[in-house]
Specification:
The complex is a heterodimer. By secondary structure, chain A is mainly alpha-helical. Chain A has 8 helices and no strands. Chain A is elongated. About 5% of the residues of chain A have low confidence. In chain B, helix 7 packs antiparallel against helix 8, helix 7 packs parallel to helix 9 and helix 11 packs antiparallel against helix 12. The chains are: A mainly alpha, B mainly alpha.
Amino acid sequence: MEYSELPSALRADDTDRVNELVKGLYPRLLAFLRIHMNANKADAEDCAHNTLILAMEAIKEGQLRDQERVITYILSIARNDYLKLQRDQREKYLEELSSDYEQYVPPDQLQSLFDKEQERLLEGCLNQLEEKYQRFMQYWFDHPDDSAESVADEFGISINSVWTRKHRLIKRLNECYRKKIKF
Amino acid sequence: MKNILRDLALEKRIDAYVKGQLDEEQAHQLWEDLLKHPGYIELLETELGLKAMLENQGATERPKSSVKEIILYQLQASRKWVAAAVIVITTIVGMNLMGPENSHSTQGLALAEINLRQQLITAPVTRSQNAHITGADSLLNLGFKAAIQGDVDGALQLYNEVVTKFGDDPAAVRALLNIGMIHYNTGYFMKAISSFKEVIEKVSEQPIAEEKAYWYLGNAYIIQDKFILARDAIQKAYDMDGIFNRPSANLLESLDKKLANQE
């Protein structure tokens, strides 16, 4: 999807193209906010909506000078909007707590993207893999500082095969998990 | 999910991201690329879920923490403190530090003070460095803690320690920027200018830090009545097309009027 078309589509009032681009962009922004900014689902949805509105208004007003940088621009808006939301929420919480602020437990831990049920489904998918592949994934995450060379040595395969195997296994797990979650 | 065209370089960056080995700028760049390759976003999500699941299983099976884990826990605890401190400051020293970012000096052009609570840089708390809290990050967080408690000297000492010990680390640039902001708020504008200039000199692939340095440098020059230098710095902040783009445009307009009146 070519997002650099968004500014020209907005300026040309090409509603169909704008809708198409925004429809594609929304879930990706949501993922950015959920995964990278560690936003919960409701906040991510609010911020993604807000970001798209702010970005479109700003682009229409001609504030984006280099349309090739539209993605950078939109991500910056999303990031700032979420940080602002967090600040507002903290301050609101503080007002409510007044002198009792010690009880506040800040959201300092990265939230798990998967709840228990989702984790169970993913575990089921992992258990469906052959044992040697399960061991490969376990080893990969147990040794985050190991280079691909070390992993290649450990499993007696080439470095290229390490990356290919990892990609294929994640892809298989992803497909299995997405299929299960639909039921 | 449709078959995706493989991009090995992108996969390696995703792997580094999942392992918490990217800094915030690199992570941001990665996300720009991921938005153009949505197939990989779905895989990333699954990979993070898998990582968390395997780590949780490992945690329940592991009876004792290793020394490395204990150290990591302690470093992460300092990050927790920062989050808590953000709350505490509003009641302790907020009166001094919480001026709005757009409060202006008597000249009506430059910022009267910098909102340190919002602008001081701490260690990133996003996923990019989840598993990689460094000593420099920890010192940055302690510096923030000191600054918001009003212990300006303590904060400066900690930030200087980051600069001295971690000269090549991006954290050193962040520390320098924080030093500049503290000097700005305490009225040591020459020192602030010197710090911001050093940030600009040393910064590499940290556009947000660079933009902030130009923006605050310009403001410090205004306070010193060095309007041509100020204009040059603000123009650079404006050209970076980031978070200070709009205020820079407004300030450039005001500076141009001021300079025209002086002629």
